[in-house]
């Protein structure tokens, strides 16, 4: 599956407007009830507004020309009541839609965020965090604007347009045709230009995302930026992204306003035509003055919504472009699915983890692992060594099913690793990354991350769990022990401290397989020795995989594997491996 959100699907078919609107409305499906009530109010209001000109025309012909002022007062009163009702109903409708729009965006943000959480590591490799933030924040906000302000105006304009058009044709068919003809020119114009406007808006949304990604990258790497004095470099990059954003924003601004003058021109032409032809009809006795006034009001009621649609069209197109960006995330599936029908083979005798003819490459990259076969047995310690970029972390990531092989199979306890659900797999496999990730909170909360077993323990109970596991001494490096605050996603901790927290986090889960990817590289020698003593206390069932560059870390390994140029070669014990290296049987 292609997880790159910014790769456009070339053969995307253009959908008709009603289909697009339906898609957009699906975002607000949960607010259907409120939308229906608001829509009903809108229909009543529009109908009342439509009746207005008819009543005015009737009053002119029957009461003003005949000077019956009682009737005039009565109809003026009726009109006043109608307009007051419209005012009250519009207020209710606006409040209803404002609340509904906020709830739609609230739910949508949750849905998009949860969806992002479900997606595999490849998705995060292929998309920049800043762009994702922009989709969750900015694009959902644009939908909010559409739902709270534009949607009902949009629908009411369409309704008013159809109703006023029909009224005009019913009252006087020929005059109706004269009035409506210029609108056909507008329709042709809009039809031709809409794809262009949509493209301009999509380009602008994309650039907002790219700019946000640029900001995110420089902010999250600010230390390197400052240390290498690369502020200019990032300033230049930001300037470029900002410039692109500015250019596309101007493009979309022009596209969004291009309809306006055209709409005004044709609506003025229409009114002029109605007036000329209407006077001609009055002269020949085919129309009364009252009706011509009603007619001009209807022509207004017909062209005003078109003018309104011109500005709403932009909002509609922007919302569509944003909905496109959001729904791209929503339609993505995690391709690391759990296999349902995997036959459970006899477990332990097949080892803890086994690679069977595994081939792997990152998306759009060359193959990294070729034809890899090995088996790791229960309770043993294995070391994976090899040159930088040789494929050690990739091999470990496949063991933890962060990725699936392109070919071949990985077995966990004799069963295809794809048949384990995520919870079970995470319970069985502990993975300490080269750069452990911490979350804002306390040391305790970070150790307990993803561990339900001790989640409800009191502080004292949890401390005794830590002490019983022999981890107590590791807490000495934190000023306030378990209560030490972790801020800015771990930035307040040294790398070594972060590694210790990640170590305790993994250790307490008592996994079947514990992978340490350069996990002790930033810890002082004394603490490292302490860690190796603690590792000896791991349950005898736990298989340990150590990825390391320092020889002392792997001395006690039962078996060494060399990982180089995508090949994983079994090299025997530490001594055997050294001998093989000396005699050049393994390429270092
Ligand atoms: N997310 C990724 N997307 C594309 N290519 C990647 C990705 N991660 C790693 N690679 C590539 O895969 C190859 C193996 O990388 P890997 O991280 O597995 O090596 P390593 O042996 O662990 O290196 P080191 O000792 O430096 O940690 C490298 O060529 C690297 O550029």
TrEMBL record:
Transmembrane regions: 35-60, 72-92, 150-171, 177-194, 245-266, 272-298
Listed GO MF terms: ABC-type oligopeptide transporter activity; ATP binding; ATP hydrolysis activity
InterPro entries tied to this protein: AAA+_ATPase, ABC1_TM_dom, ABC1_TM_sf, ABC_transporter-like_ATP-bd, P-loop_NTPase, Type_1_exporter
Pfam families: ABC_membrane, ABC_tran
Residue intervals of the ABC transporter domain: 353-586
UniProt topology in membrane: Multi-pass membrane protein
CDD domains the record matches: ABC_6TM_Tm288_like (cd18547)
Annotated ranges, domain ABC transmembrane type-1: 36-318
GO cellular component terms given for this protein: plasma membrane
Keyword list, A-Z: ATP-binding, Membrane, Nucleotide-binding, Transmembrane, Transmembrane helix
Localization of this protein: Cell membrane
SUPFAM superfamilies: ABC transporter transmembrane region, P-loop containing nucleoside triphosphate hydrolases
Keyword Transmembrane applies: yes
Protein name according to UniProt: ABC transporter ATP-binding protein
């Amino acid at each position: 599956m292609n997880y790159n959100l910014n790769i456009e699907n070339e053969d995307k078919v253009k959908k008709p407007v009603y289909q697009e609107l339906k898609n957009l409305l699906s975002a607000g499906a949960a607010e259907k009830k409120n939308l229906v009530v608001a829509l009903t109010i809108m229909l009543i209001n529009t109908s009342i507004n439509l009746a207005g000109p008819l009543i005015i025309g009737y009053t002119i012909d029957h009461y003003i020309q005949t000077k019956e002022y009682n009737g005039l007062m009565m109809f003026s009163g009726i009109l006043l009541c109608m307009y007051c009702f419209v005012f009250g109903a519009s207020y209710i409708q606006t409040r209803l839609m404002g609340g509904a729009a906020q709830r739609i965006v609230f739910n949508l943000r949750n849905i998009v965020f949860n969806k992002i959480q479900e997606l595999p590591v490849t998705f995060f490799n292929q998309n920049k965090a800043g762009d994702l933030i922009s989709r969750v924040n900015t694009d959902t906000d644009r939908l909010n604007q559409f739902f709270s302000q534009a949607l009902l105006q949009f629908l009411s304009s369409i309704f008013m347009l159809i109703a006023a058009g029909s009224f005009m044709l019913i009252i006087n068919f020929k005059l109706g045709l004269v009035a409506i003809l210029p609108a056909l020119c507008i329709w042709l114009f809009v039809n031709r230009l809409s794809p262009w406007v949509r493209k301009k808006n999509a380009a602008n949304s994309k650039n907002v995302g790219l700019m946000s990604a640029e900001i995110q990258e420089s902010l999250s790497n600010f230390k390197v930026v400052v240390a290498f004095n690369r502020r200019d470099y990032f300033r230049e990059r930001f300037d470029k992204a900002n410039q692109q954003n500015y250019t596309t924003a101007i493009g979309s601004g022009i596209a969004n306003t291009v309809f306006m003058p055209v709409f005004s021109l044709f609506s003025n032409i229409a009114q002029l035509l109605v007036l000329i032809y209407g006077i001609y009809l009055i002269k020949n006795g085919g129309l009364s003055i009252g009706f011509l006034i009603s007619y001009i009001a209807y022509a207004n009621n017909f062209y005003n919504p078109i003018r309104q649609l011109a500005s709403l069209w932009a909002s509609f197109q922007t919302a569509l472009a944003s909905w496109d960006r959001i729904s791209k995330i929503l339609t993505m599936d995690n391709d690391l699915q759990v296999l349902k029908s995997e036959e459970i083979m006899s477990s332990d005798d097949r080892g803890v983890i086994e690679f069977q003819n595994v081939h792997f490459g990152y998306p759009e990259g060359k193959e990294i692992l070729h034809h890899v076969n090995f088996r790791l047995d229960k309770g043993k310690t294995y070391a994976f060594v090899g040159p930088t970029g040789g494929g050690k972390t990739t091999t470990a990531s496949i063991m933890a099913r962060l990725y699936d092989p392109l070919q071949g199979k990985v077995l966990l306890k004799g069963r295809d690793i794809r048949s384990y659900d995520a919870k079970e797999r995470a319970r069985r496999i502990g993975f300490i990354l080269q750069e452990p990730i911490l979350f804002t909170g306390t040391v305790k909360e970070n150790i307990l991350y993803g561990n339900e077993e001790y989640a409800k323990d009191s502080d004292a109970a949890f401390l005794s769990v830590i002490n019983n596991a022999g981890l107590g001494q590791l807490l000495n490096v934190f000023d306030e022990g378990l209560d030490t605050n972790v801020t800015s996603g771990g930035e307040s901790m040294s790398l070594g401290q972060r590694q210790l927290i990640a170590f305790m986090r993994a250790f307490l889960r008592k996994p079947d397989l514990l992978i340490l990817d350069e996990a002790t590289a930033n810890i002082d020698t004394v603490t490292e020795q302490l860690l190796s003593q603690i590792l000896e206390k791991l349950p005898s069932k736990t298989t340990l995989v150590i990825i390391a560059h320092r020889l002392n870390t792997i001395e006690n390994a039962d078996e060494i594997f060399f990982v180089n140029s995508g090949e994983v070669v079994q090299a025997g014990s530490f001594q055997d491996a050294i001998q093989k290296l000396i005699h050049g049987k393994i390429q270092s």
